[in-house]
Amino acid sequence: MTEPTETTPASVAQISAMKALRAALLAQHKVLIDYDRAQYEGVFGPVPSGRFVQLLTEDPWFRWLDPLSRLIVALDEWQEQAPPSAEAGIGLADEAAKLFRRTDKAFGERYLLALQKAPDAVLGQSQVMAALRAVPQSPATDA
User: Fold this and answer.
1) 121: which residues sit within 8 A by CB, 6+ positions away?
2) Can you give the three-state secondary structure of the chain, one letter per residue?
3) Cα dihedral across residues 114, 116, 120, 123: positive or negative
4) Cβ distance 87 to 7 under 8 Å?
5) What per-residue string of b and e applies to 8-28 under the rule 16 or more CB within 10 Å gives b?
6) Banded model confidence at residue 104, pLDDT cuts 50, 70, 90
7) Cα angle 51, 55, 57; round to 5
8) Measured in whole angstroms, how far is the alpha carbon of residue 129 from the centre of its chain?
């Protein structure tokens, strides 16, 4: 049996900053879904809303969005903890930074394309980056 580890509760400021990050990520997620849907429909024709939800969760076309979707869910779960852990929040912020600084290759390639073709994605990128600057993250390493 292992001993429970001590965790530092997140500060009010960290929780607030993480909520702002989640809001920015969620808004960008919607922009990216709308962009990718337009691209998909340009190739395959119009898709009814009910069918689109199924495609979004099952079609390989949309798999590149999975890391962002999972991150938003993880942020929701983090916020539901009583109290949220400061360390876990830093880990989630690090994950968001990795995605949006395009160091995650699978996500980054498609994301860069969206940034080049969807003006709303560029605005969303600036909002995500502003939110990232406000949240605690791990110190940068010279790797």
Assistant:
1) 28, 31, 32, 35, 111, 114, 115
2) CCCCCCCCECCHHHHHHHHHHHHHHHHHHHHHHHHHHHHHHHHHCCCCHHHHHHHHHHCHHHHHHHHHHHHHHHHHHHHHCCCCEHHHHHHHHHHHHHHHCCCCHHHHHHHHHHHHHCHHHHHHHHHHHHHHHHCCCCCCCCC
3) positive
4) yes
5) eebeeebbebbebbbebbebb
6) confident
7) 120
8) 11
Q: Which amino acid is at 88?
A: A
Question: Comparing C-alpha atoms, which of 97, 96, 123 is closest to residue 35?
Answer: 123
**pLDDT band at residue 143 under the 50/70/90 scheme:** very low
**Signed CA dihedral, 9, 20, 129, 26: sign only:** positive
| pLDDT at res. 103 | 72
**How far out from the chain centre does Cα 44 lie?**
27
Residue at 61: amino acid letter: W
pLDDT in tens, 71-94: 999 999 999 999 999 999 999 999
| Average pLDDT for 87-111 | 91
Q: Is the pLDDT of residue 123 over 60?
A: yes
